[in-house]
Amino acid sequence: MTAKIINGKQIAADTQAFIKERVSALSARGINPGLAVILVGDNPASHVYVSNKVKSCGVVGMHSVLEQYPADLTEAKLLERIHALNNDASIHGILVQLPLPKHINEHAVLEAISPTKDVDGFHLINAGALMTGQPRLRACTPYGVMKMLEHSETVLRGAHAVVVGASNIVGKPMAMMMLQAGATVTICNSKTRDLAHHTRQANIVIAAVGRAKFITGDMLKAGAVVIDVGMNRDENGKLCGDVDFESASQIAGAISPVPGGVGPMTITMLLMNTLEAAEQYT
Length: 282
Ligand SMILES: Nc1nc(=O)c2c([nH]1)NC[C@@H]1CN(c3ccc(C(=O)N[C@@H](CCC(=O)O)C(=O)O)cc3)C=[N+]21
Ligand SMILES: [Mg+2]
Description:
Layout: E1 4-5, H1 8-28, E2 34-40, H2 44-59, E3 63-69, H3 75-86, E4 93-96, H4 106-112, H5 124-131, H6 140-151, E5 160-164, H7 171-180, E6 184-188, H8 195-199, E7 204-207, E8 225-228, E9 232-233, E10 239-240, H9 245-251, E11 254-255, H10 262-280
Parallel strand pairs: 1-11, 2-3, 2-4, 5-6, 5-7, 7-8, 8-11
Antiparallel strand pairs: 9-10
Helix pairs in contact: 1-10, 2-10, 6-7, 6-10
The structure holds 5,10-Methenyltetrahydrofolate and magnesium ion (MG).
Keywords: Amino-acid biosynthesis, Histidine biosynthesis, Hydrolase, Methionine biosynthesis, Multifunctional enzyme, NADP, One-carbon metabolism, Oxidoreductase, Purine biosynthesis
Subunit structure: Homodimer.
Function: Catalyzes the oxidation of 5,10-methylenetetrahydrofolate to 5,10-methenyltetrahydrofolate and then the hydrolysis of 5,10-methenyltetrahydrofolate to 10-formyltetrahydrofolate.
């Protein structure tokens, strides 16, 4: 069996076309959605991601501002900037790129962002809203994965989904979204005994462990839908996911690649969240 490819890049392009229409409809009513991205320090990967986010805003006709600060920026200064952006009517979404330098308390920063402008969906209010089944702004990566499952016509209701990884930004919100959609969800973590026993039961596997090519074909049920959230470098420095694509694509029914899978959807759902924030909170 050779798996169908879930093409995140294509789904992202289609979704962006839809976002672009809604942006122009909103602009016609005098509201131009705006995103502020804050980057602290000089992590080269962060620079690439952040410039991609700003570029994507342009593609859908959104306003964006990029604020860059040196690594020694104080937490107080950063909080001051967030408060200013919270009160800036031209800005509907605020994203503080992670990771932050160690001297800055990440939790304090994320909680300082107004929940109505929290387009990452990381604020306690937004995490809690998802948890209690009344989602407001949702974490971009799992939100994007939900769109990928929808586009690949994967049935969630009654299905068994296994999430490998329990982070606050991917694993936990992912599990909540699929649970809400009617799936039976197992959340595995780095300490799970006999992980393959769990993944082999799954109709849907979401790999978000941060270990290159960790999920192999022998760990899958035949025909499973596999979404790879990983972003790693392999032994040759090439970008690769948490799934061993070569073996997994022989067993899976559908699989998302890296690159060209979840990554482009994460950025697209950031735009979607900014649009939703502008539509709902102005
Ligand atoms: N506050 C915050 N929010 C984030 O959403 C956030 C963050 N911090 N810090 C870093 C991670 C990483 N991230 C990516 C998004 C898209 C791609 C992406 O588009 N990847 C392309 C490939 C890119 C390449 O070639 O390097 C793909 O998968 O096809 C990658 C990584 C968002 N993050
Ligand atoms: Mg990808």
